[in-house]
Amino acid sequence: MSALIFIDAAEGHIKKASLEALSYGAKTAELLGTKAEGIVLGTVSDDLASLGKYGVKKIHQVINDTLEHFDAQVYTNIIAQVVEATQAKVIVFSNNLDGKAIAPRLSARLRAGLVSGAVALPETNNGFVVKKNVFSGKAFANISLTTDIKIIALNPNAYKVEAREGTAEVVSFNANIPASKIKITSVNKASGEVPLTEAEIVVSGGRGLKGPENWKILEDLAHVLHAALACSRPVADAHWRPHNEHVGQTGIAIAPNLYIAIGISGAIQHLAGVNRSKVIVVINKDPEAPFFKAADYGIVGDAFEVVPKLTEAIKKMR
Ligand SMILES: Cc1cc2nc3c(=O)[nH]c(=O)nc-3n(C[C@H](O)[C@H](O)[C@H](O)COP(=O)(O)OP(=O)(O)OC[C@H]3O[C@@H](n4cnc5c(N)ncnc54)[C@H](O)[C@@H]3O)c2cc1C
Q: CA-to-CA distance for 119 and 180, rounded, in angstroms?
């Protein structure tokens, strides 16, 4: 028996969310008195052995050309093979886009209970109970997993990365690679300096910015803060910004350490995707804007005056 953690990589680099999943999986294994192992699919340029410092003793790697493009069905099939070979009883994913695509498939395949959106370590004193977010982050539910194999998809930014000493043994896993049913004809990469789902700081704009030509002030602020850009849904619907920046109930759900909302009213559907942010700063010219109720800090003012001043002040501080 072991805990198996899926190590997610993009363009050869391990995602920060995977380091959180590794730290979480290693601690879970410790609670259960077992060992933690990792699984990585495809080639990775980062040093895999160094991931041992997050608590994994062994990493199973499957290298095959077909794995260079993400295919949830193929990935699920291979992970199931590794689960069988390692007799893993707890499997941990990050609840990011890849984890959301694989974990439910693996759950159905292995008939394993799944908690997606976990926010805390499992309670193992009396059964196996995992706390998760429900109702778009408005409440918590404690889910008891009673199946032999248990799957947890950990919300990004919900568990601190814990680095210790140690290196992992990296072993090649000889998997039976199924043929992909998907043919990739083109790949459109998201623009932006920092990927939105990985970002610690997010600068987000709404209809209050009036038009796409005004995004330069947000880009400048995002640049000095090394932040990702996001937007409200009407902004993406109007093609002011690409859809991959749309956050909210029908967009991407994020949980950065700092979310700066500029010219966004704070509709409930928008808040649903950002209210897990650790600190929310709202800049809006309307003191009655609903977003102020969810904000930790607020600036009542015109974005076109406030944002350039903020950018200049941060530049000076740095
Ligand atoms: C089923 C459903 C799903 C939805 N899903 C989403 C979702 O996922 N994400 C999402 O964002 N929305 C979603 N919406 C839409 C949502 O209800 C709101 O309509 C939307 O979030 C409003 O976007 P906004 O705040 O950018 O624009 P507005 O509501 O028009 O607000 C603009 C804000 O900018 C302020 N402002 C104006 N000028 C300035 C200035 N110069 N300086 C500073 N502030 C200024 C105004 O005071 C106002 O508060 C959904 C709606 C439905 C019905």
A: 33
